[in-house]
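Cast an eye over this sequence plus tokens and explain the fold to me:
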Amino acid sequence: MTKLSAHAHRKDEHVFLAEKFYPTTEQNDFDQLRLVHQSLPEIALDEVDLTSKLVDKKIALPFYINAMTGGSPHTLVLNQQLATIAAAVNIPMASGSQSVALKEPALVDSFAVIRQANPHGLVLANLGADAGLAQAKQAIAMLHADGLQLHLNTPQEITMPEGEQRFYWLDNIRQLVAALPVPVIVKEVGFGMSQQTLSQLITAGVRHVDLGGRGGTNFVAIENARRSQHELAYLSDWGQSTVESLLESRTYQQQLTIYASGGIRQPLDIVKALALGAQAVGIAGTILHQLQKNGLAATQTMLSDWAKQLRLIFALLGCRSVSDLPQKAELIFSPQLLSYAAQRHIHL
């Protein structure tokens, strides 16, 4: 058996630790939101249209499998299974970071398998925001990708024992957005985005943003577990939640296409994110947990059921489309979220 490189081994560590720290009972800020019931919705279930868009392409359902893994023999199998599920449910899928495959060509198959298992679906490539133009084009070609996620992950790098120590990314993002042949989504990995960050990204020419808020997979906890002294646990709550990030984005939702991810546990969380202005919702940890615990068939069934349940919730709200939700769905915010919005000068 070929010995894994340190980078490839880290990919397996991440999968193991993501499951170890999976928040099976933990609440998050989606619980701080309520939807107002409408007793006379005046709608039929077959009038609900769940289509939306991702990187300007029509998608059948307003959610997708978000970036998770790849870069080792074990994660090759996971990516193949995830792509098989994406094809069966007819939802998009984003790859995990492909940087390891650019350094170690023997690992390309652990990512290329996504397109092989899902030849006709919408697939997103993934690299860090410091990637060069040639690297970005190579990552896109590896998957015949429809778009590229550029991930922002400063807290993860800070906590990672072997992480980066320089974070000059904005000019590079600007150059990649201008030069690449496919749309670019700038994506956080679980720490959310602020109004300032969104303003900076608009200035750099970015049109698509995945807010990637706190509440799901916690990369500070994962990387801190890999540190010999585990001394950075106090950073585990760093960042804005997905709901807080959606509030932060309100000023910019006419200038940016907003996608939401981080802590999506069930269809009601998806609906709440859409009601706050997301065009589509990314799901990672919940899917990976289900896949590892119960297998491919059960995960596929879960997501197919979610699609049916979304239609029910839309009907409860009297909403016929994704674009209806921000206009028609009435939200009640907890005192904590009201305080956050007031302190951040966000109009609700």
User: Anything to note?
Assistant: The chain has a mean pLDDT of 94. Residues 41-343 form a domain with the TIM Barrel fold (CATH 3.20.20.70).
